[in-house]
Design goal:
Elements: H1 7-15, H2 34-39, H3 47-61, E1 90-93, H4 105-111, E2 113-116, H5 130-151, H6 154-169, H7 205-217, H8 225-244, H9 246-252, H10 257-272, H11 276-287, H12 302-305, H13 310-330, H14 346-354, H15 367-376, H16 383-391, H17 400-403, E3 414-416, E4 422-424, H18 444-448
Antiparallel strand pairs: 1-2, 3-4
Helix pairs in contact: 3-5, 5-6, 5-7, 6-8, 7-10, 8-9, 8-10, 10-11, 10-13, 13-14, 13-15, 15-16
The protein binds 2-acetamido-2-deoxy-beta-D-glucopyranose (11 copies).
The site of one 2-acetamido-2-deoxy-beta-D-glucopyranose (NAG) has 5 residues, from loops.
């Protein structure tokens, strides 16, 4: 039932400032096509997407590094290395407590009952923010790896290695390789233990893993043999937890997006440690298991449409399936045409999702899925590109346009603004962007870059703002 989403909404509530800020995208789920990324030589239509990626890498980097030790709370073990998160959609209802004065936060967490409000974030849930920090780390790793390839500047790879070391392997700051305390149920009637739904908190591992595969393939000096060995060691322990622990197996049994992300996360880590046979078994279990009932003949994903935020959840599960297909690609198994019981694939799931209005949900969550299907299935009649062009006339400047190729830019003109946002058209004459006025260029990355770069004044502002949330 439970998922987590929209740090955007949450961060804005808690930390809004007056400064307008550009939100760099945090994609739901990605698996970089490793050979395509490593080989480079991309079509120059991706020029602005590349610039956007470099700006995003810088923006995320300025906020790091991140560690589970950053939080001021600990799990009930008192072990500072334990990952901890609270159940996101459970709200305190203190009507069971006969209090005559305000309760302290601690009393609320212990004495009040907690009630599920699907899709709505409990206001204080990110006081324990390992979830947000992991997401930020995974995005920083993802964008910095791409920026490294784009610019050839080793400092981006150094950042990637630093962020990975700090979160996973550094002796002082590492996370224990388990999720025993994820999405903990608080309250008088809560279990105070981790729930299987919390395994979803690390679904962004696919971004980290595919980035590491790229660094390995590029033989980056920053990705040292020591770090590689330490990360393999961590991953071996963690995947063992995923494959055997009861909490993890509960998530594996989930039939909706939770199950899908269990399989994408697990298979990706098996690939990282070189266990391709294990990865294949994991993927096969998905395609012969929960996948079969996830998409109906009309392309609906009924388990997602039933939720309080159906547009988000359809895009979310489709993103998981796309990632699963890409991991299979990596180990040399083309699964894109494997059908559900109803005879359809993720293509039909995205087709269906495209027909539904976003309502008050974030419309752009679906765009990377649409581009993925368009590039993977060649978009012969321009259905996906013309839909995207209608929804977002800046899409050729969005990061995903770099790796969702081949895919047309629909002839759209874009540029990257001083703050790093993708804009439609050509830059205003006196804009600081694109070299016409270098005075506000504070982007070290651009300065170091051997390739032509826009000058970005990327503001390091309040965190939290992510366009395409989880
Ligand atoms: C790539 O496109 C950009 C933007 O249109 C242009 O400035 C640049 O010269 C192009 N580079 C090449 C190698 O064509
Ligand atoms: C989070 O922890 C890392 C590792 O100790 C540290 O370098 C970083 O400054 C911390 N971040 C914050 C915001 O405290
Ligand atoms: C954790 O610390 C608290 C407060 O000091 C203590 O009451 C509790 O017994 C400790 N838990 C464990 C598992 O050591
Ligand atoms: C009881 O505590 C809750 C939580 O602090 C608070 O919202 C509520 O107003 C309190 N009740 C009274 C009568 O003070
Ligand atoms: C906790 O109590 C609330 C209010 O009575 C109820 O709605 C909820 O289902 C309970 N949760 C659990 C896990 O029992
Ligand atoms: C790691 O930390 C532990 C305890 O904090 C210490 O005993 C051990 O020697 C450290 N290992 C390394 C390689 O620094
Ligand atoms: C990626 O490149 C490697 C090395 O050239 C090759 O062995 C592998 O088959 C390629 N993978 C895919 C999915 O094309
Ligand atoms: C699906 O199968 C068709 C027919 O064999 C093939 O042309 C197409 O390339 C396949 N799609 C993908 C994404 O592999
Ligand atoms: C260049 O940008 C700076 C900072 O935005 C601005 O103050 C200045 O007027 C601009 N100069 C020109 C020639 O546009
Ligand atoms: C949670 O972490 C993210 C990423 O570091 C940050 O942007 C966000 O502001 C944090 N949320 C809160 C409530 O601190
Ligand atoms: C389209 C365009 O004008 N691109 C330019 C942006 O700025 C960089 C660096 O100043 C130039 O190299 C690009 O040609």
């Amino acid at each position: 039932m439970v998922s987590f989403k929209s740090l955007a909404t949450f961060g804005l509530t808690l930390a809004a400032t007056s400064a307008p800020v550009h939100a760099f995208s945090s994609y739901i789920s990605q698996w970089l096509p490793v050979n395509y990324t490593t080989e480079g030589g991309w079509d120059n239509r991706t020029f602005y997407a590349q610039q956007e990626i470099v700006a995003a890498a810088k923006w995320w980097s300025d906020q790091g590094p991140w560690s589970v030790l950053n939080k001021t709370f600990t799990a009930p073990t008192n072990n500072t290395h334990d990952y901890l998160s609270w159940a996101p959609y459970y709200w305190a209802d203190c009507s069971n407590v006969q209090n005559t004065t305000e309760l302290t936060p601690q009393q609320v967490w212990e004495e009040c009952n907690y009630v599920n409000r699907d899709g709505q974030f409990s206001p204080d849930v990110r006081l324990v923010n390992d979830t947000g920090n992991f997401q930020a780390m995974s995005d920083a790793v993802f964008y910095n790896t791409l920026a490294y390839k784009i610019t050839g500047d080793e400092s981006y790879a150094q950042k990637t290695a630093w962020f990975i070391d700090t979160w996973f392997t550094n002796n002082a700051t590492f996370m224990n390789p388990n999720l025993n305390w994820a999405q903990v149920m608080r309250g008088a009637n809560g279990s105070h233990g981790g729930q299987h739904t919390g395994v979803l908190d690390l679904h962004g591992m696919t971004k980290v893993v595919s980035a590491i595969l790229v660094l390995r393939a590029l033989a980056s000096p920053s990705w040292t043999p020591q770090l590689d060995a330490a990360m393999n060691d961590w991953s071996t322990q963690y995947v063992n937890w995923l494959l055997t622990n009861d909490i993890a197996l509960g998530e594996k049994a989930a039939t909706n997006n939770h199950g899908s992300f269990y399989f994408s996360q697990t298979a990706s880590i098996q690939v990282l440690i070189g266990d391709y046979a294990g990865a294949r078994t994991t993927l096969q279990e998905y395609f012969e298991g929960i996948y079969l009932n996830q998409i109906t003949a009309d392309g609906d994903q009924p388990l997602e449409s039933a939720r309080t935020r159906p547009y988000h959840y359809r895009a979310y599960n489709a993103a998981a399936i796309i990632t699963i297909n890409r991991i299979a690609d990596y180990i040399g198994w083309n699964t894109w045409n494997i059908t559900t019981k109803a005879g359809v694939t993720v293509k039909e799931a995205v087709d269906f999702a495209m027909t539904k209005p976003a309502g008050d949900e974030a419309a752009d969550e679906l765009y990377p899925d649409v581009a993925a299907i368009g590039s993977q299935f060649n978009d012969p009649d321009g259905k996906y590109s013309s839909w995207l062009a209608q929804q977002d006339n800046t899409y050729p400047g969005q990061a995903y346009f770099l790796w969702e190729q081949p895919f047309t830019d629909s002839g759209l003109k874009v540029y990257i603004s001083d703050s790093g946002s993708v804009e439609s058209g050509t830059p205003p004459a006196n804009s600081g962007s694109n070299g016409s006025n270098g005075s506000n260029n504070n982007n070290a990355a651009a300065a170091l870059s051997p390739s032509p770069m826009v000058s970005f004044a990327v503001a390091a502002l309040f965190g939290a703002v992510v366009a395409a949330a989880l």
